Amino acid sequence: MIKRYFVRTRSLEEGMRIDQHIKDRLDRTLIARGTYLDQYMIKELQKLGIAGIYVSEGEEDIIPEKKEPPLPPKIQKTIDKERKEDPSKVMLTESVKQRVSTGIQYLYNNTDTGHFANTTTSITNDLMKAINDNSAIAVDISALKTSDEYTFKHSVDVATISMIIAKNMEYSPDDIYSIGIAGLLHDIGKSKVPLEILNKPAKLDDAEFEVMKKHTVFGYEILKEKENFSKSIALAVLQHHEKMNGKGYPLGVSSDKISNFAKILSVADVYDALVTERPYKKGLSQRTAIEIIISMTAELDIDAMKSFLETVILYPVDTNVTLSNGEQARVVKNNKGCALRPTVVSLTTGQLYNLADDVSCANLVIQ
């Protein structure tokens, strides 16, 4: 049973669960309903002048899940024999997701605040800790969601994916940290784009898109004036839409003039933009997005792309999937660099399908 009641802001305590959305003057969610408050959030509510909020306690009645019937012993034995744990993945707890989401929204709404640098480093520290705590070298791209608001979710996703790509490429901890900051702030220039363009619920026309493209320059100008951010971070923000073939923006430079940080951000940015649903388009499936990434060899850096494909987990081990031959199967192993083609075991026959290396499986795909 859930109990809902009103609490004055000055009486809020850490760990209370908010039962309403807190939004800014632009109707953007600052704190989502269901968030467990921490001291940072309580202070921000007080700064906003909010007199009180609704909180709730208790849980909804849980309906027991239906258990799947056990597999035949022969099939289970094959699964147990062939099963290999996925590499350690980035794990963001709900409290971290909420804290990061609130922090990134604060940054995009307050680019001129004196707390900008401290808030940025606090968020990056959370992401770096999540990566280091379990020696993560992979990312489950279906489990990253931090917010329902596109700009903020996208920023955190790009930062996290970029940091894992950089770690796999054996960048130094300091560089991984800087890439995380660049990922968080890569779209900060959108805070200077007119709202009628930024929030347009339809595809932008050519003139509007030209204005939107300026967000890379706006972001660079915001960061270059702040002493706490290196030139490499600002340059990555400026160049994250440049393409290896010189057909990107804002400068139209080619591979040798694009910073390494920007090359990594570009892969993460393109992937996350493809899978994210917007008011004017449906998000693509993760599989389709990866196929598109693989096809962009003329536009994306090959090394960064290869690292992405080696670190991304599309079908986590123990996931049940449907094969193109109609069989249901269970993923028992992910094959490095082959996100679309793991090793699976048929749940009806127990047959092992190594989709990456077995030529007899060349025409078999996961639907």
Task: Describe the overall structure.
The chain has about 375 residues and is of the alpha+beta class. Helices cover about 40% and strands about 10% of the residues. The strands form 4 sheets. A 4-stranded antiparallel sheet has the order 8-9-10-11, with helices on one face. The chain has a 3-stranded antiparallel sheet with strand order 1-5-2, with no helix packed on it. Helix 4 packs across helix 6 (about 175-185). The radius of gyration is 22 Å and the shape is globular.
Task: Describe the secondary-structure layout.
Elements: E1 3-8, E2 17-18, E3 22-23, E4 29-31, H1 39-47, E5 52-57, H2 73-82, H3 94-109, H4 116-133, E6 139-140, H5 150-168, H6 173-185, H7 195-198, H8 206-212, H9 215-224, H10 231-239, H11 260-275, H12 286-295, H13 302-311, E7 312-313, E8 320-322, E9 328-333, E10 343-346, E11 352-354
Parallel strand pairs: 6-7
Antiparallel strand pairs: 1-5, 2-5, 3-4, 8-9, 9-10, 10-11
